[in-house]
Amino acid sequence: MPSRETDARAVVLQNVDLLSIVFNYLSADRIKSDQDALETRKGLRSAALVCKDFVEPALDCLWHILPSLMPLLKLLPSFGLIDGVYMLEDVEEGDWERYDIHARRVRILDLKPDQVSSSPFVYPRIMRHRKGPLLPALRELRIPDNTSIDLTLAFIVTTPDLKVVEIKNSAMKDAKFSYPFLTSLSSEHPKLEHLTIDGDRVINLKPILKLTHLRKLELRLPNMHLSTSFMEGLGNMENLLDLTLHAGVQTQVSIPEPVRRDPLPRLPPNTTRKFKQLKHLHVLGTISCIARVMEYMNPRSLLSFSLTESRDSSGNPLRPFWTQCFGCLASSEKLASITINHCSQGKKEDYLSASSLEPLFDLSGMQHLMIHGDSFTATDSELLALACAFPRLKSLVLPSGWHTSAPTPKSLCHLALSCPELEELRICLNVDQNLANTVKSMTDDVAEMPLKHKHSLRRLYINSSLGNLSNSQSIVFARVLWIRHSLSSRFFDIRWSCQ
User: Which InterPro entries is this protein grouped with (predicted)?
Assistant: First the structure.
């Protein structure tokens, strides 16, 4: 009679879904180096040889991602080396059997240069002999920034079920490839859901507007001028939920015109959707360019917003552009997360301030407000207004330095009362005053709080506007956070950090 352990082992080995989960942890993807990927592939191959129950799930993971068609082509009897170059002779009908067994397993094609070159006539001959798609189950095509990649392959692996395409800089610079490939996407990959384009080249973006099923779009094209017609067309893409957009440049640039010039119809202003369906938005560039492109947006369904600022050399005052950007988000009633990567511009009037956030103060559902950078301007009253506007905050991260003014330690009391759900606080405080008076004032404020006042704070990071606190200052200031009836009884389980 078989033991219970044997029965359990048999059940596990017969569970293909469970084995697939185990082997998926071993699959090679972009997060691994080439050497790690090679070792992973060796491990999966060994697993397939160890046990017949491992064969299918191990081979599925082994062939899940490929750097080129070369591993599959080597399964064809008529494909081999001649004078140091891979050649393809005539392919007979039965030659495709081994190829097809493993081609159906491929989901990701992450193109990399082949170590041994193949004849330029290989792919045309393959297409002549092949009746169906080369990779019938392909879901993702990645074209990295590498000039040694044979871009011809991107055209011949077409499958109607392709979901993701990533095109990086070198491929976009190749004019013979980039525009024809973009124009082919809407007709040959009608179900495409995610498109990433990253590069320095100025290209015609109209083909993107024909990808009506796009759910996620990443356009990092810093030298582009995003025209009114393009922004309006982008805003009308009904399925677009996630957008990463470099705001480009202010002035118009010359764009290569297509051979076939079919103008997109210009919609009346009252019929544009203005990104009302968008859930996640990340904009990059100078704040003036970001403000310009956000004029086309009214993202009422937005859940998260990120802004990555780059240095502005125009010399224009920048603070009004911040107010303008945040004003475009005022109607986003569901917005719960804002992340700002602020770039120090050098002039005091260009630094981001708490007052610039006032257009957002009606968004009471805000849960995460993170502003990363070197400098920030805020007063106690401005921080109090922010805390009252966002009572559901869970994370408040402010820059590690201040410029014109910084809140005092008393602002911690305002946050304790106004933001009871706050779990993480990173803040720069102005301690350029009599610490003894500060301690007394804060202790009095805390004493007025209800004794049963509880707080969710777990992480508190305080930076001094004067630089590092002295040992004596740190000890005195820490006491107000740890004495029995002070903030520590409200802000409990704190990880104290004062720099």
Answer: LRR_dom_sf
Tokens of 403: 């410029």
DSSP string, 337-351: EEEEEPPP-SSGGGS
- What SS3 class is residue 287? helix
Residue with tokens 């004794």: 451
Q: Under 8 Å CB-to-CB from 181, ≥6 apart: which residues?
A: 151, 154, 155, 167, 171
For the chain, how long is the longest CA-to-CA vector?
91
pLDDT means over runs of 10, the chain (499 residues):
52 53 57 64 67 75 88 93 91 91 92 87 88 92 89 85 93 86 87 94 90 96 93 94 95 67 55 84 96 94 96 82 93 96 72 90 96 87 94 93 78 85 88 66 67 70 64 59 46 46
What pLDDT sits at residue 28? 55
Amino acid 12: pLDDT: 47
The count of structural domains within the chain is 1
Encoding tokens for residue 149?
A: 């990649």
Task: Report yes or no on 429 lying in a domain.
Answer: yes
Phi, psi of 68 (to 5 degrees): -170, -175
Q: 79: helix, coil or strand?
A: strand
Residue 302's alpha-carbon distances to 35, 233, 365, 460, in angstroms, are 41, 18, 12, 29
In a domain, 164, yes or no: no
In a domain, 459, yes or no: yes
CA dist., res. 377 & res. 483, Å (int): 30
HSE, side-chain direction, 13 A CA sphere, residue 362: 9
What residues does 198 pair with on adjacent strands? 220
What is the DSSP pairing of strand 164-167 with strand 194-198?
parallel
* Confidence (pLDDT) at 471: 61
Angle at 63 between CA 57 and CA 69, to 5 degrees: 165
Cut 0.90: pTM above it: no
In a domain, 474, yes or no: yes
The HSE-up count of residue 230 (CA atoms within 13 Å, CB side) is 18
Domain that holds residue 422: 351-362+387-499
d(CA 304, CA 97): 48
Going from the C-alpha of 342 to that of each of 8, 339, 371, the distances in angstroms are: 56, 9, 7
Q: Please give the pLDDT value at position 486.
A: 43
**Whether the Cβ atoms of residue 412 and residue 384 lie closer than 8 Å to each other:** no
pLDDT at 216: 98
- Report the pLDDT value the prediction gives residue 179, as an integer from 0 to 100: 86
**In this predicted structure, what is the pLDDT of residue 251?**
82
Please answer whether residues 310 and 285 qualify as being in contact, where contact means their C-beta atoms are separated by less than 8 angstroms. Answer: yes
Beta carbons within 10 angstroms of residue 299's beta carbon? 25
Report residue 496: phi and psi, to 5°: -80, 130
